[in-house]
Amino acid sequence: MAVIEIQNLRKTYKTGFWRKTEKEGLKGISFEVREGEVFGCLGPNGAGKTTTLKILMGLIFPSGGTARILGMDIHDPRVKQQIGFLPEQPYLYDYLTPLELLEYYAGLSGVPARERRKRSEAALARAGMSEAANMPMRKCSKGMLQRVGIAQAIVHDPKVVFLDEPMSGLDPIGRREVRELIQSLHDEGKTVFFSTHILTDAEAICDRVAVLDRGELKGVDVVADLLSKARGKVEITWQGQPKIESIRAMSLDYHATGESVRAVVKEADTDRVVDAVRQAGARLVSVTPVHGALEEYFLAKVDAPKKEAEE
Amino acid sequence: MRARLALIAANTFREAVRDRVLYNLVFFALLMVAAAPLFGVISIGVEKIFMVNLGLAAIVLFGVVIAIFVGTGLVSKEIEKRTLYTVLARPVARWEFILGKYLGLAATLAVNTSCMAAGFFVAVAYVSVGLHAADVNLLVALYLIGLQLLVMTALAILFSSFSTPIFSAAFSFAMFVIGNFVEDMRGFAAMSGGPEGWLVRGLSYLVPNLGAMNVAAQVAHGQPVPGALILADTANALFYAVAALAAAVLIFERRDLK
Ligand SMILES: Nc1ncnc2c1ncn2[C@@H]1O[C@H](COP(=O)(O)OP(=O)(O)OP(=O)(O)O)[C@@H](O)[C@H]1O
Ligand SMILES: [Mg+2]
User: CA–CA separation, A306 vs B53, rounded Å?
Assistant: First the structure.
């Protein structure tokens, strides 16, 4: 079942003093997110990720097209019971403490009064904010606010969770924790829709990704497929012989810095290259499968039209 | 729905308290205390009139300043700071948000005004050596002040739904001033006739008649307030508050959040 259905969604922003200048934030995008999926929305700055999320949350109104969540129109009040939302750089009431904020929000989402405290504490614990639960929010750091933002998105146990750049502002440990949190939401059978421009994060946790660029949808793909397509490349590094012509000829990428060389070759060629390195008397340093499949996909999707336009 | 309205109102009240809005009570208390020594130099009998006028004027002024300055920021600040995103992504309708905020500020003003009223009664009792039966009129005057504040809060929210906080505050304050001269405007219109007379008369029906809700002069002299006036004022205030809130909701309902 499709949990999120977006059809030909458009948003034209009117800017300027007389609201005469038009700016296309979304130029008609369509895709679906299935139940239980972790779905990543990728794209460079200004691609339209936040615009898409704000339309889905009913914060702004589309200029055209339709969007449905759980089979209901996005403006159906019942939709809001079932969804949680973390905005980009969450701004939260700074006169409250995280615990007060969560109890308030749990109440607004219809959590019965006697469960609010317990659920709020649990959500804060899940987001790694237990220790600062009673500290005034105006004293919280950016990463702490981000965690409170995540906690408020899940406090009412929603079926679908929308996260706009959930890892931004977090340290490496925090990012890993958020990845694990998304993973655990996935294990509970929830649908997670999130936006990011950090590709490795998307690669690690998404089932499928959509790539947006300047308001257009460039593609939707299953991450596992992408990874297997791109597998089959190996990076080999060695020291001592900067120029081994036989290897350079079969390399996809060959880069020498002083005595050190880094070459990317097809997986099938690995043995031949390693032999060639030994024969040349160089010291083999590493042989690693190339990662970053998503990055290639992303760059190809985002760059191709630019190149076409330039030609 | 009622539960959500109550939650939003309670949170608005909590914000006002934590933002130290109620600190104005300290100034009010100081004003009342500072006024006391003056009474020694004013002749007996006049001092109560003076006290009542000063007290009621101060209560209106403090209330209106809060209604305007907190009221204009009530919704617009939440849009500006984007704290609204996480609220409206919940099962909270936009009109519920506005109404909840309104009720929260109304509750804040009610508490604030009650505290000032208590201090005011102490001061009156002090200068007139105890309270008298006629002082019931003071309660009526306070009730009518409450009506004025309800109207001003609604207007502040309305203006801030389409304008910047500074303009909204200026508009609201202008409304408050003009609203206090509605009778004079109608008097002028009746005298002058002509197009400008019609214009002024039209305007006088557009703004709420706050002047009719100001009975300080009568009650200071111990005159009762006619029941018909209380009824008319109540109807008038409710009409303007509801109309202003409805207009604010209509504007806000279809608006893109920044
Ligand atoms: N309120 C607005 N008024 C005018 N234009 C806007 C507004 N909000 C967004 N835009 C424009 O719409 C486009 C998409 O913006 P959006 O915020 O959705 O991008 P994004 O993918 O979230 O980018 P980022 O990665 O930087 O967060 C941008 O070109 C932006 O300038
Ligand atoms: Mg964004």
Answer: 74
Sequence-ordered alpha helix ranges (H) in chain A: 49-56, 77-81, 98-108, 113-126, 142-154, 172-187, 199-205, 223-230, 245-250, 270-279, 293-310
pTM, two decimals, is 0.85
- Multiple choice CATH, A2-228, 3.60.15.10, 3.90.1480.10, 3.40.120.10, 3.40.50.300: 3.40.50.300
Query: Could you tell me the residue ranges of all domains in chain A?
Result: 2-228, 233-289
Q: Calculate mean pLDDT across residues B60-68.
A: 93
Tokens read off for A290: 């190339």
d(CA B247, CA B155): 10
Would you call A18 helix, strand, or coil by DSSP?
coil
Which residue out of B85, B256, B258 would a mutagenesis test of the A interface target, given it has the greatest number of A Cβ atoms within 10 Å? B85
Q: What is the pLDDT of residue B154?
A: 96
Q: Which residue has the tokens 């929603």?
A: A158
Which residues 236-255 on chain B approach chain A with CB closer than 8 angstroms?
A: 254
Model confidence band, residue A311 (pLDDT cutoffs 50, 70, 90): very low
The verdict on a CB contact (< 8 Å) between B7 and A61 is no
